[in-house]
Automatic annotation (TrEMBL):
Organism: Faecalibacterium butyricigenerans
Hydrolase is among the record's keywords: yes
Transmembrane segments: none
Gene: pulA
Enzyme class: hydrolase
The EC number(s) this enzyme carries: 3.2.1.41
GO MF terms held by the record: pullulanase activity
Keywords carried by this UniProt record: Carbohydrate metabolism, Cellulose degradation, Glycosidase, Hydrolase, Polysaccharide degradation
UniProt protein name: Type I pullulanase
CDD domains named among the record's database cross-references: AmyAc_Pullulanase_LD-like, E_set_Pullulanase
Amino acid sequence: MKTPAEWKTLFESSAFARQTNYSGPLGPEYNPSGTRLRLWAPTAQSVSVNLYRRGDGGACMGSLPLEPQGQGLWSVYLPGDQHGRYYTFTVEVEGTQHETGDPYARTAGVNGLRSMILDAPRIDPPDWSHDHRPAIPASRRTVWEVSVRDFSQDPASGVRTGWRGKFMAFTQKGTTLSSAGTFPTCLDYLKRLGAGYVQLMPIFDFGSVDESRPLTRQYNWGYDPTNYNVPEGSYSTDPSKGEVRVRECKEMIAALHAAGIGVVMDVVYNHMYRNENPLNSTVPYYFFRQNPDGSFSNGSGCGNEFASERPMARKYLIDSVLYWAQEYHIDGFRFDLMGLYDVDTMNELRAALDALPGGRDILMYGEPWQGGGSQLHRYEANKANLAMLSDRIGIFCDSTRDVIKGGCFDAREPGYVEGRPGSFWDIGGAVAAWCRSDKLPAHSPAQIVSYVSAHDNFTLWDKLLLVRYARPEYTAADSAALAQNRLAAGIYLTCMGMPFLLAGEEFARTKKGKGNSYRSSPALNRLDWKRAAQFHGLVDYYRGLLGLRARFPRLSAPDAASPAAIRFFSLEQPLVGWTLPAAPDDGAEWRALCVFYNPTGEEKRVSLPEGQWKLLSDGVSSALWKSPSRVCGGEVTLLPCSATIFGRV
C-alpha cells in the first residue's frame, strides 16, 4: 500500500496529470428515459453504485458496477425514470472500500449521506425559468451579511412559526415586529434599508448540525461543508426529502430577486468538515493539500485544506461555482480564506464566470488571508498578490476595518472613532481605497471591500463598548457608543470601493461580548427585531448613507482617476475632511460631496473651503441628518463623534 507521502508524489507528477485529467461532465445526468452517473476515481480498483428508496434508513435495493472509461472516469447507466432515487458509491482503493456520497451530488437525504438523482425542472418553484438577477448598479453594491438561521429565528420577527430560521422566511411579505403592523421586519425591512445584496452565510450542506434533530438547541454558522453542491437540509422545512431543500432555496432566491436584492453566496471550498468526506473517500488525499510527509496541511485551521492547484481539484471548484451561478442564479460569491487558493485558480474562475450570460455582473471577492500555515508554495490569492488577481476580484480590507474601530483581536485596542492618536493619517488611505497609499499593491478601487464588522470577531457595538468600559452594559443605549457607531458608518460608507456590513450593525447588534459565536446559542446569534425598532434612528442613519452613496456613483467607480480626484482639507488634527468633485452620472442637484469626520470630545468650528454649503437632505433621506451638526453660513460646527456630510448646491 502507498504511504501518504507516496500519494503526494504521484498526484503532483506530470505523468499522473496526463493520464487522469478529465474535462467532461461529472455527477448525475438525468433524462426521463434513464440517468448516467459519472465519477472521477483514478486510483480505484472498482466502483459500484448502491441504490436506495429513501434518504435515510431502509435496505439497499441493489448494487451495480461502474465501468472504467479512461482518464480516471467511471460510469454506469440506470434505465428508467430515476428522479427521487437515492444512491451512494462504494469505492475500493488498494483493497479498502469506502461507501460515500457523490462529490457532484445535486441534492441529498438527511445529513447528506445519500445522494439523490434529481429532475430539477420538475420541482422548481413556479416561474423559476423567468427568475433573473436584478440589475444593480455599482453605486448600490452594498452587501448585508446574514445567516439564514439568524434572519428570522426571533419569535418577534413576525415570520410564521414553521418558517423561522428557514429559507422560506425570506419569501414571507408583510412581516412586522410581533405582527403588530408597525415596524417592518425581514424582507420588508431589507427592502426599506436599501442594501443591494444579501450575503448568505453558508447555505450548502454542512456537517455540524444534525438535520434529523430539532433545531431548538443546535446552532452553527456552517463553515464545515459536507456537500458543496447541495443546499443545507436544516434550512428546509423537510430535510428528509432531497427535493424540498432545492425548491425552497430557489424560492428564497427568487423572493430576494423580486425585491430587487442580489444574493451573494458565502463559499467555503478551502476545507471540509471531516477528513472522511465524499472527495477524500473517492480519491484519498488528492483533493487536499499535503505536508512533505503526506499528512494533511492545515492552513484552514480546521484539519485540512483544499488543493486548488491540482488540476482536477481546480476543475471541481470551478464546476461547483458555475453550477450555483447557473442553476440557482446566484449573484455573487464570497470566498472564505481566499488566501488558501492560488491566483491562477481564482483568475480562471473569474474568466469562467465572465463567460456566462450576464456573468460579468456576478460579484467575486474574498478574505485575502489564511487560517494558519499552508503548504501552498505558489502565488496565493492574498493582499500581497492583489496586483496579480483580476481587477474584478475584490478583497476584504482589514486595514480599513482596523484603522476605523481598532484591531479585531484585541478587544481594548482603539481606532480612529475611539480617538486613537495618529490614526487620522490612515483614514485618508481608507477613503481613497488605499489607491493613494503604498500599503497595498496596485489595484482598482472597486476591489476594496470596506467594512467594520462581519460575522467573525466582535460586533461593532460590542467592540466600541469594550474599548470604553471594563464591564460594558451591552443592551444599554450608550450615547457615546451611538455617536462612535455613526462616525464609523459615516467613514466606511463614504469610502471608495464596495461597502459591507454585518446584519444588525445598523441597529447596534450585540452578542454580549462574544467574539466567536459560531456555535453559541440561537438566542445569542439571532437578529433581535425589537432592538431594530429600539434603534430605529440608527437604522435610518444607515439607510440615509446608503441613499447618499447611490447618488454618487463615483464612490464605487473602478477607475484610478476617482481616488486621485479626492482633495483633503488642511484641518486641525485629528479632524479629517475631504471633497470629491461630482462626475457626470451623479445626481443633478448635487455638485460635490464634502465629508468631515470628528472623533474628538469637544466642539470644532471649521471654515468651509468654498461657497455656501448645506446639509444634504431632500432627495436622499432627511432621517440621515439626525447627528448633532449644524451649519452657519460658510462654517460648520462639528460636535463630538459626528460624521457630517454636505453637498454644494
